[in-house]
Amino acid sequence: MDFTFTEEQRAAVEAARAVFADVAPDGVPSPALTPGAVADDFDRPLWAKLAASDLIGLVLAEEHGGAGLDTVALCLVLREAARVLARVPLLEHCATAMAVQAHGSPELAAALLPGAGRGTLVLTAAAHGRSGHDPAELAVTARRDGEAWILEGTQTAVPWAHTADWIAVPAHTGEGEAVLALVPRTAGGLALAEQVSTSGERFAELALDGVRVERSHLIEDPEAWERLRLVLTTGTCALALGLGEAVLDMTSRYTGKREQFGFPVATFQAVAVQAADRYIDLRAMEVTLWQAAWRLDAATGGAGGPLPSTGDVAVAKIWASEGVRRVVQTAQHLHGGFGADTDYPLHRYHAWAKQLELQLGPAAAHEEALGDLLAAHPLA
């Protein structure tokens, strides 16, 4: 079995590295020193560079101006983005575009995907529900009104909502079915209240009060929201992996030059053992990430396993949440007081790591979901 990445996937990584090469993690005010959001908008110049390198349309079909690549390729690019704390809605945008492409009507695809592929139209998704703990599709109701749908409810912690053009909102019909509505940010009845993430980014609480959605802008296939949720979760694992790798590299460089008793602290056994443990965490995060991403792509081709792909995603998120937390905690310990210095980038990575740890559910939530899957699908 060949586990190497394809030539197209490796090319996407090289293109991403070239784009992110000049990105400075300290390019915006520190979340530790800013009372509100670190910026009103995401990094538009970087977004333009990604578009110019054809990375925004990476997962779209050629008919929509994309490269036709898969979830694995997207995760490879997200991994590079997280190394430099790139402030762009790449995950939410691409995951939503994939859902529209796979499940949306031809009218919806024609309206959104060409602009999404060029980056001139920005997409995001509401995936945290009312409180961040309950299923997101239960936070909003959708009822038919002639040829349209009416949405009522609240979604919290929606990333980039203030500056995105369209927002994917999961909802339920009251009959146990999940639907996915694509709502323009300027829709009547839609109100956005500012929220600030742990990483200092500008999020929003969405209040939907009689928001009217045309039939062609609502995806009734229940697989659409489930697929979008799984891609968002897997992409979050890729971000956690890239961030963790950058932090361990930072720690290695620091402990290699920081001396005590005339020797670099990296040569001390206690320091080396802790760094080795975090390296093992990262390798576990990596292997479970690629397993989850591969299962998501293979599922469309009929490939199966002892558990649904939801189980692989849950395992990946368990490792990502626990692993990235341990990596940044060990980094802070090995940096000593220097790790808390706001003139040094580690505190930013720590804030982002906490955001990624809890985003779309902490490890405990996915352990519970995995337990439910094992109960429903006994392993022989």
According to DSSP, the number of beta strands is 10
Query: Radius of gyration from the CA trace?
Result: 21 Å
Average of the residue pLDDT scores: 94
Estimated share of beta-strand residues = 15-25%
Helix content: 40-55%
Low-pLDDT segments: none
Structural class: alpha+beta
Alpha plus pi helix count = 10
Major β-sheet, in short?
4 strands, mixed
Query: What is the N-to-C order of secondary-structure elements (H for helix, E for strand)?
Result: HHHHHEEEEEEEEHEEHHHH
State the end-to-end distance: 24 Å
Description:
The protein is built from ten helices and ten strands. The strands form three sheets. The protein has a four-stranded mixed sheet with strand order 1-4-5-8, covered by helices on one side. β2 and β3 form a beta hairpin. The radius of gyration is 21 Å and the shape is globular.
Which features characterize this protein?
380 residues, alpha+beta, 4-stranded mixed beta sheet, 4-stranded antiparallel beta sheet, 48% helix, globular
Question: Helices, strands, pairings?
Answer:
Layout: H1 7-20, H2 44-52, H3 71-83, H4 90-103, H5 106-118, E1 123-125, E2 140-145, E3 148-159, E4 166-172, E5 178-184, E6 190-196, E7 202-214, E8 218-219, H6 222-257, E9 259-260, E10 263-264, H7 269-299, H8 309-335, H9 346-358, H10 363-376
Parallel strand pairs: 1-4
Antiparallel strand pairs: 2-3, 3-7, 4-5, 5-8, 6-7, 9-10
Helix pairs in contact: 1-3, 3-6, 4-5, 4-6, 6-7, 6-8, 6-9, 7-8, 8-9, 8-10
